[in-house]
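W.,

You were right to be curious about this one. When I first looked at the sequence I had no strong expectations either way, so I just let the prediction run and decided to look at it fresh. Below is the sequence, 334 residues in total, followed by the output.
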Amino acid sequence: MKKNKTQILKRQAKSKEAAKKKRQIRLVKPSSRFIERPPLVEMDAPKGFIAIPFSQAMMEYAKPLMEKGADDMDGMNKVMELASSLWNLASSKQKNDHEQYPRWLEMATKGAKKILNLDGEERDRFIDEMIERHIHLFPEEMQPPPPSMFMYMRKDVSYLIRPFDYGRIKFKVNEIIPPDEEDMRMLSNIEVLDNYIRRESNYDSYEELAMSIEDECQHLFKKWLIAKGFADNPAEYSHCLDTYVTFIYRYLHDDPVSLKSVPDQYLIEFFEDFLLRKVMCKPFEYLYWPPALKLFYRFLNEKGYMSVNDTAAIVEKLDIIELHFLEILQKRYH
């Protein structure tokens, strides 16, 4: 086993270098437009700051508005519209942009009245607080030079992140649960999708199928956990699949990738870059992804998609990547 782990570590070191080179030019989505960016974990934020995508920066900034209430999607959109006005207002102040500042102040003032029903001194105090929040979290002098899709956000809290407690992974039912009709339909759809990938078909031809498989995998994996008498909360694990299956089938790779065949560099890329960019959660919640994926591959093995040997091989890779991912989280959120 020690020899196998050493060999895997060597392969992953080489794969990491390959992935690093490939991520220097990465498509955001299937199109003809390329952008340059380093992987997230290799962005050296200033001490006391953390590199995050702009979308996550905006969500973090908007938290005080979220707390004031948004009951539905329409309400959420209006809140985010106000947050955008406040962001631009604060940004124009930090940049001493005297031309744009009055325009954004007017929009923020009207939005605070219309969306949050704030007026007078209360409204002005709230706007001032949101400006100060932006200056505190995203000081202009600390930001990466343009153009950049990332922000450096101040870390106000440090987290002690311990290894995942595998004592929580317990089943009441150890017998194999054979695939039922729903499982067979899911497996058939995955095989069809894998064939699209192997033939390097145009993305548009399989996008809808890929999206449906995300839902199927999540639903049937949760159903399997419940049927197996899983001791922990199945939802905490099943929700991890959406991000992973999206990465496998709906994110551009330079090589054919399927659930059955994931080259080392792409597993590394998922944990070092994709997951941290696409999912915004509490730092310790990222720890669910490695055990969730190991359980998912056990599920795929029981249902007949993966062989025993292939399953064992990918779980062994996940074991090693998990240790590296823990180090990333500990460094990132300390």
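Here's what jumped out at me. The chain is about 60% helix and 5% strand. And, maybe more interesting for your project: Residues 52 and 150 are 5 Å apart (CA to CA).

Coffee later to discuss?

I.
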